[in-house]
Amino acid sequence: MQKPVLPNGGAEPAAASSAIATVARVSRLRVEQAEPGAALGTGTPRLSWVLETRDRDWRSDRYEIEFQDSSGAASVAVVSSGESVLVDWPLAPLESRRHGRVRVRVGSGARWTEWSDAEALEVGLLETDDWSASFVSPVSFGGLDDAAPLVFTEFTLDALPVRARLYATAHGVYEASLNGARIGDDVLAPGWTAYEHRLRYQAYDVLAHLRRGANTISALLGNGWYRGQLVWPGNRSSYGDRLALLAQLELEFADGSRRVIATDASWRASPSGILFDDLYDGERRDLRVPNAPDRASSEPVEVVPGDHARLVARRSPAVRVTERVPTAEMSVSPSGATIVDFGQNLVGWVELVVRGGRAGDEVTVRHAEVLEAGELALRPLRSAKVTATYVLSGADVEVLHPTFTFNGFRYAEITGAPHIALGDVTALVLGSDLRRTGWFESSDPLVDRLHENVVWGMRGNFLDLPTDCPQRDERLGWTGDIQVFAPTAATLFDTSGFLAGWLEDLAAEQRPDGGVPYVIPDVLREEDPAAAGWSDAATIVPSALFLSYADRDVLERQYPSMRAWVDKVTSLAGDDHLWNSGFQFGDWLDPTAPPEEPAKAAADPYVVATAYSARSAGLLATAAATLGHAEDARRYGALADQIVIAFNHEYVTPGGRVLSDCQTVYALALCWDLIVDDAARRAAGDRLVELVIAADHRVATGFVGTPLILDALCLAGRPDVAHRMLLETTSPSWLYAVTMGATTIWERWDSMLPDGTVNPGTMTSFNHYAYGAVADWLHRCVGGLAAAAPGWKRVTVRPLVTGQLTHARTAVDSPYGRIESSWRLDHGRVLLEVEVPYAVTADVWVPGADAPVTVGLGRHRFDGTAGL
Fold it and tell me: E.C. number, please (predicted)?
């Protein structure tokens, strides 16, 4: 329990004269879950930090927070607590636009750490009344078939301000400039949210771009998700048919005066050189037309409707260019085009340097993930054209890349550009700029490549929201994909703000009766969406975030959504607690599903649905208990028990056989404790092992069974069989794709057939992260490191050493600091090392031991037996 001492107006506390500890330091101070310096959507931001020390006698018993605002006034508070993760703001709430710097130090007895480095803190626009700007749109151009419009205004400054902030958003996507200099480095802002309910705005520091005298501020508008094609050909303008800009430039001067330049009817609009833009189909640009405001060709704008109450600050990192990948190889296709291979399937843009081109010449860049017979394999892209076309200006050197589109590709075909050298073509990797937090390596290079494929798949698909795939005419936030992958995602990268924001969209799109759409944001508009494993994202994703980040607020915020979904399922199942009606995706895309029938899996979809209903009810009961909702915890705990009893009565035989008798149903039953009788559970585990061995250790699971199958084998007492399944290289298996040259996770186990041709199904993506959920098992069971309490405050270290791998290492940059587990085989012994940061407790199961050893801060070495 945090016990704050009231702020003392900046006076130094009495403890200041105590000893300064050099054995401990505060690092990684973070304000909320935002990027450093981001405008916050709250006036009471939570703070987190890491306490670094090697002193095992250190006992954090209090911390002091100091906030110094822009005027130099400081407020401080001392809180009696040893916590350091998402601690409450102990000072007076901050109002809109308040900004300054915050720092923290931690005490232990008579000692204090030094102050942490100060972190910038800025509050955004919290109230609707903070906005004076209006949404403005071009009148006679800027339509679907017109060039991308530039919206701009001009103003004069007699003196330069001391502070300048631009708050902006759009219907569509935008790129803002001030006096010809681009503002910010984010891409495709404001991103994609449930636009009817939530529209993000961005805040930029533009002081450095201003000048005395004449100034011009402008924004280039693109279709993006707001008005571009979504889901299927011809489905455009999902949210509206007019692009619009909302911008508010606020200037503060040394004399205390303020000036606001906001979008209104006085702004102008002119066409740009971007003649066409679409996320799926690409972009066409005429470089002879500068992307700069042109008053001569401009027209007035029109104020259009736009609800300011929807505006929210960005919670997650922005989409940016996060890496530049050079060309690995160039070749000429059978048709005579230049083919560029970047050696990695990725998401982003091709940047092309053209020298000596003539004005009016056209250069075309097309994209694909794989080649067939030396040419781009375009069929898997379905209707998406994924083409960038440039009309050259005739300059000696021109650098080409698009602005308002993105592509999933490894290969690019370039035509119209003569004399391209290897160094002239670079892939710019786009994605939400998430901080990497999880690493894994082992003795098997194929397994390591598999893990790297998972990382790259996540990087490509976590582009403002968790999409299923980044290349074809889909790219949607499918709930089924993220619910199976959320634990992996939260280990590999810091997704705390990213997924928390997406969950707010889920809650906003949820139907009044609790139904959860299959994609978020919901552009499918199903009348009554409810499908096991997909809609269950409402309960599973918040639970995964709470375990990884100890974010009680996200659990509290999503709790009504979680409860509404479980109540919806309860109404569908009826008195017998069996959810055996209605549409189900089932064990989507299991290997037995025909190419054109992805839902035709071995697992009975209603067995899967009832299993998920028990799982969600149990997670809801746990969340209720965590939040102190005792009656709900009792009620939904009892509901989960009733569903399990119904599952056993309907689907489990006394001998432990489960209806459908396939890998997926046994995995669900074992991992989620759905079999009541101990003997039947053991028999079910034995049967699962039989099925896997009979399949020559190949995978027979789809989207819902795959994340659980290896855990289920371990629960059945056969980690050796789990490892053998992991290491299988024939299709269907995880390593089959690796042996075929995959650099990301595929949608199908055999997206590419052994002869190098593409699977004939229309759903054949080569970058689809769902099956990458296996990385969670690699970290927990091969590396041996798992969170046992929210925020990784307690961990279990239990590597399952079978001899099939000879060493493994995993590391997680947890909210409390870096935790590592590494082991290697040495002549029948297992040498295990564990690194534990301050405030974390580890229960270490040394291989061969019957009970765990509990350790805390420091590096610990253990010598165990392999038992091989």
Answer: 3.2.1.40
Question: Do both 218 and 288 map to the same domain?
Answer: yes
Same domain (yes/no): 95, 175: no
Which positions are annotated as active-site residues? 474, 747
Model confidence over 718-768: pLDDT tens digits? 999 999 999 999 999 999 999 999 999 999 999 999 999 999 988 999 999
Q: Are strands 199-205 and 311-313 parallel, antiparallel or unpaired?
A: parallel
Cα(293)–Cα(284) distance, integer angstroms: 19
Indicate whether this model's pTM tops 0.90.
Answer: yes
pLDDT, tens digit (0-9, with 9 covering 90-100), for 362-398? 999 999 999 999 999 999 999 999 999 999 999 999 9
Distant-in-sequence, close-in-space partners of 208: CB < 8 Å, separation ≥ 6: none
Give the phi and the psi of residue 226 in degrees, each rounded to 5. -65, -45
Distance, in Å, from the CA atom of 394 to the CA atom of 275, rounded to the nearest integer, reads 18
- What average pLDDT does the chain have? 95
* Domain assignment present for 539: no
| Encoded tokens for 400 | 């080409």
Per the document, the length of the chain is 868
**Residue 308 included in any domain:** yes
Tell which residue, 372, 465, 505, has the closest CA to residue 769.
465
Question: Same domain for 174 and 291?
Answer: yes
> What one-letter code names the amino acid at 138?
P
As a whole number of Å, the CA-based R_g of the chain is 28
What SS3 class is residue 96?
A: coil
Query: Which residues make Cβ contacts (< 8 Å) with residue 193, sequence separation at least 6?
Result: 199, 200, 312, 501, 505, 521
